């Protein structure tokens, strides 16, 4: 798969690290890569070297319930993790908004 | 001159070149981009850097830590299963499983859900199924999800569609008829895109990706831009990507405009400005690989065009880097030495924000 | 006798894609003493340039067709002279063109058909998703070029089937097989035993013209 090659050459790592968070900011705020990374660093309170650090981010994601690659029984996943991501990034996520709308729950 | 560097041709076949030969290929590729797209030349340092990367001895190369960019995938879960465009691994997975493999095993930063026949016209009849699929995926995944589809105006023309086929009409010198049939087809496609877009975005998906935009030329491009604009009004926060199908917009109509700019003949650095005006969140330029030229030539040509696109763009660029585009060889199993070198050059020199 | 000025006039008129200018340039060139064949040769070269300019986004399809229409009018003017010289501006050959069975992509193939037509070939464009036997029937009926297009890796293999069918029918030597489309490469062309690979519509047309003109075998 070419995707594995792209990932090892230049990908940020998705939920192994902060790739999904930076990607989310980039698309929502239409910001270029440096500004998107900075936003995530500021909101998460982490340094640049930690953005791509799988070991550090595994723990960080677990502690903040942001979803992890490997299973942790009972830990937030799917939309549960995204509700936490909304909080930490201070940014609404469409499916979470819909979830609240259709269930009558409030943020 | 010792031919001691293994590199590739645009069809993926191996070729051995000296550093001087690679330099000459890079210069030729750069010149070809400048000549075709009328963009500024790469600097001497840029070209030396490409040569250095092409000549690195490792099997693969990579960017330095901290320089990583967003990795997305515009083929959807079907890349693992089966699709209506290319051969594939044909894994016996369901669609959700295919997506979860991309999220959990392949390190994707964002992802694009896709129907197995992802053209606008083909999605419309199964929109309810696709909406349910999107809801299911959104409940079970973490990374940002976009719904990928191809505008594909070609399917609105005869024999698969009801409108006259412009290139066929033109061969009979019915130029005005060809233009008016194209315009009517484009209006129909615009309405269909807005229809499926509003339905899909209502599911709570993060956004949509217009993939292989302008595959049927300038009318295809303009109808897609108009659809982005309309969807943006209803969904101001949606993530709307637009990826192109080729490096320049073919002038099948020739006179159609978007906000005062003739769409035909535009290259990436010009296309992106229209995408910005329409409200696109991230733009995916394409530069075609010439299979008869070397990877050094193709990479330099692609980087030269995309560098200017990146320079003028106010929105992030997620450049198309795959089989037959972005300097990557045109073959079903693109070699990892060529892919990684093309990636590194594109990120370091063209300063793109994602692949 | 040199006709540099007239050649430039013919070239510029054709590349301008304006029918009245093309017609006027033909009349001027004729009046200066250029033969019909010399005028046609000049237009042939200029038409190739029009094709390349289209692919590079500098001209659009209506321009290409307008230039071709201008050439058509020019042929009407030159017709009597060509007939008198025994060269009636015969077509460069019959070409069957089509996107192979299972594949509905036809924009690239249609553009290629248009350029071949502009270059003087008689084009039988069968459209998209063309059943294999239709290519064979066209070759049987006199097409000496068989152009096949595929945009998908799953359909490109059909090209090989058609080549085998041509062999079985004893028609392979009777035609030049041309292949093109996004996943096709020179190596694939050679692998399946086709004769011509076209990276683009203009390259395909140039190669077909070279064969028709006897420049290459």
- Largest beta-sheet details of chain B: 5 strands, parallel
Largest interface: A-B, 50 and 61 residues
Measured distance between first and last alpha carbons of chain B: 35 Å
Low-confidence stretches of chain A are none
How many separate domains of chain A? 1
Overall structural class of chain B, as computed from helix and strand content, comes to alpha/beta
Give the C-alpha Rg of chain B.
20 Å
Averaged pLDDT of chain A = 93
Strand fraction of chain A equals under 5%
Biggest beta sheet attributes of chain A: none
Terminal Cα separation of chain A, in Å?
40 Å
The CATH topology label of one domain in chain B is: TIM Barrel
**Overall mean confidence score, pLDDT of chain B:** 93
Principal-axes shape call of chain B: globular
Number of helices of chain A: 7
Give an account of the 3D structure.
The complex is a heterotrimer of chains A (107), B (355) and C (217). Chain A has seven helices and no strands. Chain A is an all-alpha fold and 107 residues long. Chain A has one domain (2-103). In chain A, α2 packs across α3 (33-44). The mean pLDDT of chain A is 93. With 355 residues, chain B is α/β, with parallel strands linked by helices. In chain B, 43% of the residues lie in helices and 12% in strands. Chain B has helices at 19-37, 44-55, 95-104, 120-123, 127-140, 166-171, 175-201, 218-234, 268-278, 295-312, 336-350; strands at 5-8, 14-17, 111-119, 145-150, 207-213, 239-244, 257-258, 261-262, 282-284. The two termini of chain B are 35 Å apart. The mean pLDDT of chain B is 93. Chain C has helices at residues 4-16, 19-32, 36-55, 61-84, 107-118, 132-140, 157-168, 186-192, 201-212; strands spanning 94-99, 122-125, 145-149, 176-180, 196-198. In chain C, β3 (145-149), α7 and β4 (176-180) form a beta-alpha-beta unit. In chain C, α1 (4-16) runs antiparallel to α2. Chains in contact: A-B, B-C. Chains A and B meet through α1, α2, α4, α6 and α7 of A and α3, α5 and α11 of B.
């Amino acid at each position: 798969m070419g995707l594995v090659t792209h990932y090892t050459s230049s990908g940020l790592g998705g939920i192994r690290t902060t790739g999904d968070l930076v990607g989310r900011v980039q698309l929502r705020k239409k910001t270029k890569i440096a500004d998107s990374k900075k936003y995530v660093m500021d909101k998460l309170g982490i340094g640049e070297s930690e953005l791509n650090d799988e070991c550090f981010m595994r723990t960080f994601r677990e502690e903040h319930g942001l979803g992890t690659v490997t299973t942790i029984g009972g830990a937030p996943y799917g939309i549960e993790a995204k509700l936490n991501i909304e909080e930490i990034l201070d940014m609404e996520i469409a499916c979470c908004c819909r979830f609240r709308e259709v269930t009558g729950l409030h943020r | 001159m010792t031919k001691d560097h293994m590199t590739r041709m645009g069809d993926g076949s191996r070729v051995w070149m000296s550093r001087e030969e690679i330099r000459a290929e890079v210069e030729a590729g750069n010149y070809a981009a400048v000549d075709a797209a009328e963009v500024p030349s790469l600097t001497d340092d840029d070209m030396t850097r490409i040569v250095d990367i092409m000549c690195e001895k490792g099997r693969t190369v990579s960017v330095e830590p901290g320089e990583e960019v967003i990795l997305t995938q515009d083929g959807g879960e079907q890349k693992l299963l089966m699709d209506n465009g290319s051969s594939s691994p044909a894994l016996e997975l369901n669609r959700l499983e295919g997506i979860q493999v991309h999220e959990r095993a392949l390190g994707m930063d964002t992802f694009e859900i896709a129907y197995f026949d992802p053209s606008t016209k083909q999605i419309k009849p199964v929109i309810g199924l696709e909406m349910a699929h999107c809801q299911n995926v959104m409940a079970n995944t973490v990374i940002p999800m976009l719904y990928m589809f191809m505008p594909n105006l070609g399917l609105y023309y005869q024999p698969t569609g009801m409108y006259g086929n412009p290139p066929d009409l033109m061969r009979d010198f019915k130029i005005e008829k060809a233009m008016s049939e194209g315009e009517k087809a484009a209006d129909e496609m615009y309405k269909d895109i807005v229809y499926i877009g509003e339905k899909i975005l209502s599911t709570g998906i993060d956004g949509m990706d217009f993939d292989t935009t302008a595959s049927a030329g300038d009318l295809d491009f303009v109808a897609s831009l108009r659809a982005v604009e309309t969807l943006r009004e209803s969904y101001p926060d949606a993530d709307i990507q637009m990826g192109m199908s080729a490096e320049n917009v073919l002038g099948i109509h020739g006179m159609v405009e978007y906000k005062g700019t003739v769409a035909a003949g535009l290259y990436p650095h010009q296309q992106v400005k229209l995408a910005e005006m329409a409200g696109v969140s991230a733009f995916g330029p394409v530069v075609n690989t010439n299979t008869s030229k070397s990877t050094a030539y193709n990479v330099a040509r692609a980087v030269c065009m995309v560098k200017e696109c990146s320079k003028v763009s106010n929105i992030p660029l997620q450049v198309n880097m795959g089989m037959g585009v972005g300097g990557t060889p045109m073959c079903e199993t693109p070699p990892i030495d060529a892919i990684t070198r093309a990636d590194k050059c594109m990120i370091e020199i063209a300063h793109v924000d994602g692949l | 006798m040199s006709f540099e000025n007239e050649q430039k006039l013919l070239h510029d008129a054709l590349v301008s894609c304006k029918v009245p200018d093309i017609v006027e340039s033909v009349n001027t060139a004729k009046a200066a003493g250029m033969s019909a064949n010399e005028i046609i040769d000049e237009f042939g070269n200029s038409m190739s340039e029009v094709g390349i300019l289209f692919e590079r986004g500098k001209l659009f399809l209506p321009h290409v067709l307008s230039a071709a229409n201008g050439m058509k009018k020019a042929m009407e003017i030159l017709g009597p002279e060509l007939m008198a010289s025994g060269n009636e501006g015969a077509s460069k050959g019959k070409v069957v063109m089509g996107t192979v069975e299972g594949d509905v992509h036809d924009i690239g193939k249609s553009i290629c058909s248009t350029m071949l037509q502009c270059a003087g070939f008689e084009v039988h464009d069968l459209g998209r998703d063309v059943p294999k036997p239709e290519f064979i029937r066209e070759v049987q009926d006199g097409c000496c070029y068989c152009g096949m297009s595929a945009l998908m890796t799953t359909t490109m293999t059909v090209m090989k089937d058609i080549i085998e069918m041509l062999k079985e029918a004893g028609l392979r030597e009777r035609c030049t097989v041309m292949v093109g489309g996004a996943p096709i490469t020179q190596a694939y062309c050679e692998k399946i035993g086709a004769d011509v690979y076209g990276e683009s519509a203009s390259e395909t047309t140039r190669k077909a013209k070279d064969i028709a003109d006897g420049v290459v075998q």
